[in-house]
Amino acid sequence: MSVIGGYIKAGDMMEARVLFEAMPMKDLAVWNVMISGYVDVEDLVASVYLLEAMPFHEVGTWNVILSGFCKARDLESAKNCFNKMPCKNVASWTMMVDGYVKSGDLNEARLMFDEMPEKNLISWTTMIGGYAKNGQPRCTLELFEQLKEQGIKPDVTLIIGIISACSHLGILDVAESIINEYIGPSLYSNLHVITSLIDMYAKCGSIEKALKVFHTTLGKDLLCYSTMIAAFANYGLGHEAISLFHDMQRENVKPDGVIFIGVLSACNHGGLVEEGRRFFKQMIEKYDVQPTEKHYACMVDLFGRAGCLQEAHNLITTMPMAPSTVVWGALLAACSVHHNVELAEVAAAELFKIEPDNSGNYILLSNIYASAGRWHDVSNARSMIRSQRVRKNRGSSWIELGAVVHEFVMADDSHMDADDIYCILDFLTEDMKLSYI
DNA sequence: GATATCCTCA
Question: Which of left, alpha, beta for A271 (phi over 0: left; psi -120 to 50: alpha)?
Answer without folding.
Answer: left
